[in-house]
Design a protein that fits this description.
single chain; 203 residues; 7-stranded mixed β-sheet; globular
């Protein structure tokens, strides 16, 4: 089985009363028979973006906040309390948001591993539902594909990485296919290959 990665949410569709907040969880999904992340020291860091896509209606739903996962490092997510490396941003108007996070300089540098469903919780985004009847579509993916938020430009590609890798100081980049950039022997499809979407329906 080919190992693959993608960014996903806890649902593809959400519904909320106009003006109400909707919390959408953001995950890294590892599809593998045996976890490659767990075999390489867990997840050291992550970066994910959310932005509107397709036809955006007038008075659409919009992003109000995005947060990292500062829970304890463990199975299913958590990057710990060392937040000095974490960054978040919501664009003016709430059309895009992004987060970057890391376990920091904890010792030993062992990060979170996927749960039994292959998921690691990276954080969550809060969206305010628009006017009744509006349906707003959002995309979730890597910085390489979703470039509307300035964090994508500032940090660029390769923030979702394992703690360990085949070369000292060069962990596996889970956004890029096969991780050819660090000379590693891994074979996987990176998260750059997939952009997922979800919708917010205001009622």
């Amino acid at each position: 089985m080919t190992i693959s990665y993608q960014y996903v949410t806890d649902s593809a569709t959400y519904s909320a009363a106009s003006g109400s907040p909707v919390t959408v969880n953001l995950y890294l999904h590892e599809i593998a028979d045996t976890s490659f992340i767990a075999a390489n020291g867990g997840l050291f860091g992550a970066g994910v973006a959310v932005q509107t896509t397709g036809r955006v209606p007038l008075h659409s739903s919009f992003i109000t906040n995005i947060v990292t996962n500062t829970a304890a490092i463990g199975v299913g997510g958590g990057f710990g309390a060392d937040t000095v490396w974490n960054r978040t941003n919501v664009s003016v108007g709430g059309k895009s948001a992004a987060l970057v996070e890391s376990i920091g300089l904890v010792q030993p540098e062992v990060g979170s591993t996927p749960d039994s469903n292959g998921l690691i919780l990276l954080g969550s985004v809060t969206i305010q539902a628009g006017l009744p009847g509006t349906v707003t579509k959002f995309a979730v993916g890597s910085f390489a594909n979703l470039t509307s938020n300035f964090l994508a430009y500032e940090f660029g590609e390769g923030n979702t990485i394992t703690s360990l890798g085949p070369l000292s100081g060069f962990p596996f980049d889970l956004d890029a296919d096969d991780n050819y950039s660090n000379g590693g022997g891994a074979t996987y499809q990176g998260a750059n290959d997939v952009i997922n979407t979800f919708t917010i329906t205001a009622v």
